[in-house]
Amino acid sequence: MVSFLEFEKPIAELEARIVELRATASAGDINIDGEIATLEQRANKMLGDTYAKLTPWQKTQVARHAERPHFKDYVAGLFDNFMPLAGDRAFSDDQAILGGFATLGDRRLMVIGHEKGDDTASRVRHNFGMAKPEGYRKAIRLMELADRFGLPVVTLVDTSGAFPGVQAEERGQAEAIARSTEACLKLGVPMVAAVVGEGGSGGAIALAAANRVLMFEHAVYSVISPEGCASILWRTGAKASEAATAMQVTAQHLKALGVIDRIVPEPMGGAHRDPVQAIANLGTAIEVELDALSNMDADALRIDRANKFLAIGA
User: Fold this and answer.
1) What span, in angstroms and rounded, lies between the C-alpha atoms of 132 and 277?
2) Which residue in 80, 169, 174, 264 has the most C-beta neighbors within 10 A?
């Protein structure tokens, strides 16, 4: 069963009724297939209508849904021959950022991304996708390795932000984020980034300063979380909905502003309802963008990347 969000309660009630009717039909000789089909049509229409007019705050909730695909799901469903690489060769291996060599179709590449985890134990192990300096330094190491071997880089962004703890600051969190962003911009190979869930602050941009930035239809991407913005402006997180609207955090807003390059469609009801289809949609979009970048040399790729970010807000 899918976990329902607050605004999906009417859909949840209807789908629960469908489940009850199916159980009744399977337990007896009563034929209620027609009633079930009618309710399914109503539920699908309600789901489609709801997701066609989500507010920015509702999209934020969808982007954070615990059942959305995570990095390990993309690796399993999209990439072949994944060879994980660990450690920053300086301090430790940060499990909030994972990466390694992989194959997408016939193309060998480097894939790097945030991993949030999908249960209590794994979320703690991956620190809820909030990377420490060693995570970004691992990403730098992997990007430089890809550059050395002429392999494209694909990054999957899904984090509320970099870890803000004292230990992270002591080890140079801001510098590590800046160096990771710089490493993206210096790459002489094609780079495609995809915001697959939540893209928060410098913790996201450190893996997303790419030639092409893709974003799932119901993902969000912003300099600060709506709750953080609300706590600064209104001194209360209760205004998060207003903050999300004001910050224009949705893929549709960011495409219009030129911050991202392509919106990747999600299955009706969000990626968490049909992860297999969502992963396939993203794979197709990544391949299209890599094909388009494949004929550019190193200097052209760097110039293309620089021009893209210099043009934002101009």
Assistant:
1) 32
2) 264
